[in-house]
Amino acid sequence: MTDQKIQYLSQEKIEELQEEAKNIKEEKIPGIAKRIDEAKQMGDLSENAEYHSAREDMAWAQSRAKEIQHILDNSEIITKTSNSSGSVNIGSTVLVKFDGNTKEFTIVGPQEAEPVNGLISNESPLGTAFLGKKKGDQVEVEAPAGVVKYKIKEVR
Asked: How far apart are the two ends of the chain, measured CA to CA in Å?
């Protein structure tokens, strides 16, 4: 039995993936199947570039559909609940101070991580370091430039 890893996703990301899967199954795959059929009509398949290109596109589309289904089957929705404990969880937004700067991070699953926009994965070194911490805690994270110390100012 394999150990399935839970993917944490927002409701919006789940809907986005469901829409992508629907598009692949209802539009892309039938369109590619038509291209394959049309390419077969041209005769000799061994040197038919359109046929080989369409087959590669079909393999990609089928693979992506399976990947999305796997993600959805192994996902858990990130819910915004009142955080009475005040500790950082997946879905929490954390205001931190470091190196004289203040920055806000939201802890998300790896599928939605966009560090440039303050969305950090719960699996990243920074996200992992914040999980379970509370307002006032200091967190140290090993970065390429050395250890960075973060002071948690707010958790919501």
From this structure: 38
Query: What residues in the chain have per-residue pLDDT under 70?
Result: 1-4, 80-84
How far apart are the C-alpha atoms of 48 and 77, rounded to whole Å? Answer: 45
What gap in Å lies between CA 122 and CA 136, rounded to an integer? 20
Write b or e for each residue in 78-87: b if 16 or more Cβ atoms lie within 10 A of its Cβ, otherwise e: beeeeeeeeb
Rounded-to-integer distance, Cα 68 and Cα 100, Å: 41
The CATH class of 93-155 is alpha beta
| pLDDT at residue number 104 | 96
* Domain layout of the chain by residue ranges: 7-77, 93-155
List alpha helices for the chain, DSSP H: 11-23, 29-41, 49-73, 125-130
Whether the model clears a pTM of 0.85, i.e. scores above it, the answer is no
Amino acid letter at 74?
N
Top-level class of domain 7-77: mainly alpha
One-letter amino acid of 145: A
H-run or E-run covering 131: none
